[in-house]
Amino acid sequence: MNCKPIFTALFAAFIALALNAQKLEPYEFKPLKMLPATAVKDQQKTGTCWSFAATSLLESELLRRGKGEHNLSEMYTVRCVYRQKCENYVRRLGTAQFGQGGLVHDKLNAIQKYGLMPESAYPGRKNPNQPLDHSALETTLKTLCDTFIAQAKRNELAEDWLAQIEKILDQEFGPVPTTFVYQGVQYTPTSFRDFLGIKPEHYVHLTSFTHHPFWTYIVLELPDNFSNGQYYNLPLNDLMRCLNHALQNGYTVAWDADVSNPGFSAKEGLAILPDIDWKERTPEQVAAVFKYWEPEKVVTQEMRQRAFDRLETQDDHLMHITGMLNETQGGLFYAVKNSWGEISERKGYLYASNAYLRMNTLSLTLHVNALPRDIQHRMGLLPVPERLIEAPIPGQTTPPAQTQPRTRPENVPDATQSRLRNPQLKTTPAERHPIPKAVEMPKER
Fold first, then answer.
1. Which domain holds residue 197?
2. 214 Cβ neighbours under 8 A, 6+ residues apart
3. How does pLDDT run across 399-436, given as a tens digit for each residue?
4. CB-hemisphere CA count at 13 Å for 39?
5. Are 329 and 353 contacting, i.e. CB atoms less than 8 angstroms apart?
6. What Cα–Cα distance (Å) separates residue 139 from each residue in 80, 99, 133, 315?
7. Among residues 64, 68, 176, 313, which is most buried (max CB within 10 A)?
8. CATH of the domain at 193
9. Burial (CB count within 10 angstroms: exposed 0-12, middle 13-18, buried 19+), residue 296
10. What's this model's pTM, rounded to 2 decimal places?
11. Residue 255 lies inside a defined structural domain of this protein
12. Could you read off the pLDDT of 326-350 as tens digits, one per residue?
C-alpha cells in the first residue's frame, strides 16, 4: 500500500487547520522612525533601478544635511555608465556583462568622475511625453559593440569607435551640456557635485555571505557587478545592526535585494517571508497572505547562504530604505521607497519585514557616519566631519538645522527570532516583539 498520498493529504489538512485556527489579524503598522525623502519616481521600461535608488539616497542625504530638496537626474548617470559599459565590453572582447543593470557603486563612481546634474538640466530622454524605454537602445549598443569586437579581431577597428558610441548616446539621451543654469547659478556637472557637497568616497557597501571571510572587503559575484565593486563582508546580525543604527540616527540606506519570490508584492505594498511554504497553501490562503499577519521564518546565516549558493537569491532590484515601523503582531518592518511609480495604497512605498531583509538582502549602501563606531573601527574608517548647514543656493530658503539630538538604538530586537510560535503563549504583542529603544547620543564632532 502506498502511504505517501495519504500522508501528503493529511499534512495538507494539518496545515490548513493550523492556518484556520490562527486568528486572522490584518496588518497594522505604526511608524517608529520615518526619514525625509523626495517624491517617488518611475524608472518605467528601463533596468535602471540602481540609478533611481542611489539618486533617491543622495536626495535624502541632501535633506539630512540641510541642503534642501533637489531633483537629481538619474539619466545623466545612466548615460555615463552606458558609455563605460560599452568600453569595458569591447576592451574585454565581449567577455564582460552588458545590459541595463548596475549597482549603487556604479552611480557613485560616475559621480566621482563625471559629476551630477539636476533633472531640469538633463532629463535624458528624446521625447518627454513618452515613457523611458531602453530596450531598443540596449540592442543597438550591444550590436554596435559586437561589430567593433569583430572588426578588432580582423585588425580593422577604427580609432573613433568610442565617438560612434557617444553619437548613439546623444541620439537617445541628448547631448550633455558643458554648463547649465540651476536656480540662477551657472554650473558644470562637477562644480554642481561639489556645491552640493556629495562625496562618493564617504559611502560604504556592505554584504553578508560565508563563502568569503567576514571582516574583509570582497568582490561580490553578481552579474551586474561589471565594474568589480567591493563590499565589506559582515556577519548577518552585524549587517542588520548597521541598518538599524543608520535609520535610528537619521541616515537612509540603499538596498539591493532579491524580489523574484512570492513574498514580494509591490502591488500589495509588502515584502514578507511567511513560515508556511507557498506550495502548501490553497489558492484562498495564498490570496490572504498579504492581508493578514502570520508568523515568518527564522532566518539564519546558513539559510541565506544556501539560497545564494543555489542561485535562488539574485541581484534583482535596488530600492531605498527610508524608515522603520512596528507591525502589531510581527514586530520590526522597514519602509522602502520603490521606483515603479505610485502604485499600491502606499503610493510607491512598500513595507518589508525583518525576516525578508535577512533572507533576501544582497547589499546595503550607506554613509560612513551611519555605521556603529565599532564597525567603523573594524573597517579601518573614521567618522567624516559634516556641516549640517552649508552655503544656500541663491533664491532658495535653506531649512533650519534640526535641534533635536540624534539617537541610537540600545537594543534593536530581531523580530524574526522572537515570533509567536505557540498560539497559547500568554503574552501581549508588545512583549513578544518589543519596539526598538533609543537613548540620547552625543552629537558628532
1. 21-384+405-440
2. 233, 234, 235
3. 333 333 333 333 343 433 333 223 333 333 333 333 34
4. 8
5. no
6. 17, 9, 12, 22
7. 313
8. 3.90.70.10
9. buried
10. 0.83
11. yes
12. 999 889 999 999 999 999 999 999 9
